[in-house]
Design brief:
This protein has 412 residues and is of the alpha/beta class. Helix content is 36%, strand content 22%. It has 15 helices and 16 strands. The strands form two sheets. Strands 5, 6, 7, 8, 9, 10, 11, 12 and 13 form a nine-stranded parallel beta sheet that branches. Strand 8, helix 7 and strand 9 form a beta-alpha-beta unit. It starts with 7 loop residues before the first strand and ends with a strand. Bound molecules: zinc ion.
Length: 412
């Protein structure tokens, strides 16, 4: 192997590679990373650099003794939506009931109406500052769901906006079709008919468009039943689309177990998941995606069965769940803090949850760890120890970000 032709070489850095090893965070103290094109070409101890630290590279960067991690991955967001729900939040704090909020035009129906009314350009302009907040914190891959259109044209519009965000911003966007997010008002009392629409019209249109990387649904007493979810997953599978599920957030409908039966990439939320479902997830390799921001915002007391996931060897990911109703979250770092404080994850588990395990949750095996051949998605941090990423509340120590081998300014 020759080092000639390296595009970038970082030295004077410590590496949290997140590759499972005997070292916490797969750490390499006083390491070096070389990048060619969009891939990591060499990584290891600086002293082991072939040819020594003076090896030529087109650009040599002094990391100043900082820590480098894989670029962060937010594997569950509803980043694209019309309007916001701050007024509803205010009413709720003043004691308004669910019915009063609905009468005042609040609830998910208001987001659906605003999203349908907005043009693609308006949705894009509203989403971009939200996306930029994540980019400033070292996020290099982000999942974005549809689910506020709830008719074929509006769902496709949302997915197109998500794809455009990925084309215009220095970030990889992964999309999920979430037509079965809520029942649109025009289908009130006719939920079966809406599920028919999802399966026979929306899913084929989404598959033809190539705009969705996976199919998601909201399986809950206030969402879709396990039988309806199974119908949607069967239709998705027949079109060659991978599935994931909002499961067991407010009650145990065995949603996570259902997701596991369909070989889902992930089951998300999971506050009420049973031990049987945990075992099924372990057997199917389904990732547990925990969303502490929603837990916090809704003041939910029920916590996901973290110890059971650990014992069963289910990979745990953490995500922002950025959405206007239950998690107006624009910080993935804050989710590390909440995962540690609310869910008792260790800082290392929380960091694995937004790197290695978040990549698994999206079915991506080319990122999430620092290793030769992986994508050069890198984040450089002004910290003395990786645990600081879960420790500070409301502080962003991100110093620099590299997306696909290209350093990007973080002050977007
Ligand atoms: Zn969600």
């Amino acid at each position: 192997m020759t080092g000639l032709g390296w595009d970038h070489l970082w030295v004077n850095i410590h590496l949290a590679t997140m590759v499972p090893s005997t070292e916490p965070c797969g750490a390499i103290i006083d390491g070096a990373v070389a990048v060619t094109g969009d891939r990591i070409a060499w990584i290891g101890k600086r002293d082991d650099l072939p040819g020594g630290a003076s090896r030529p590279a087109a650009a040599v960067h002094d990391g100043g003794g900082r820590w480098m991690t894989p670029g962060l991955i937010d594997c569950h967001t509803h980043l694209v939506f019309g309007g916001e729900r701050a007024r509803e939040f205010e009413l709720r704090l003043k004691g308004a009931s669910y019915e009063e909020i609905a009468r005042a035009g609040g609830g998910i129906v208001s987001t659906v109406a605003a999203t349908r009314a907005a043009s693609a350009g308006e949705l894009l302009a509203a989403a971009r500052p939200r996306l930029d907040a994540f980019l400033r914190e070292g996020v290099t891959t982000i999942e974005i769901k549809s689910g506020y259109g709830l008719d074929t044209a509006s769902e496709l519009k949302m997915l197109r906006v998500a794809r455009r965000l990925g084309a215009e911003a220095p970030v990889s966007v992964v999309t999920s079709f979430l037509g079965a997010h809520a029942l649109p008002p025009e289908y009130a009392g006719r939920q079966g008919d809406y599920v028919d629409l999802v399966c026979t019209e929306m899913l084929p249109a989404v598959a033809r468009s190539g705009l969705a990387d996976a199919v998601d649904a909201f399986c809950e007493t206030i969402g879709f039943t396990p039988d309806e979810t199974a119908r949607i997953f069967t239709a998705a599978a027949s079109l060659g689309l991978k599935v994931k599920l909002h499961a067991d957030q407010l009650s145990d409908l065995s949603g996570a177990g259902l997701a596991a039966r369909f070989g889902a990439l992930s089951a998300d939320h999971l506050e009420y998941t049973s031990l049987d479902s945990v075992r099924a997830m372990a057997a199917s390799g389904t990732v547990a995606v925990l969303l502490p921001g929603a837990n916090y915002f809704l003041r939910e007391r029920q916590m996901p069965p973290v110890a059971a996931f650990r014992d069963a060897g289910v990979p745990i990911a953490i995500a922002s769940n950025c959405n206007p109703g239950s998690a107006p979250v624009l910080s993935l770092l804050l989710m590390l803090s909440m995962a540690a404080t609310l869910f008792r994850l260790t800082p290392e588990e929380a960091l694995a949850g937004v790197t290695r395990n978040a990549a698994h949750a999206l079915g991506l095996d080319d990122r999430g760890v620092l290793a030769v051949g992986k994508r050069a998605d890198l984040a450089l941090w002004d910290i003395a120890h990786p645990a600081e990423l879960a420790y500070w509340i409301g502080h962003n120590p991100c110093h620099a970000v590299v997306h696909g081998g290209a350093p990007r300014a973080i002050t977007t």
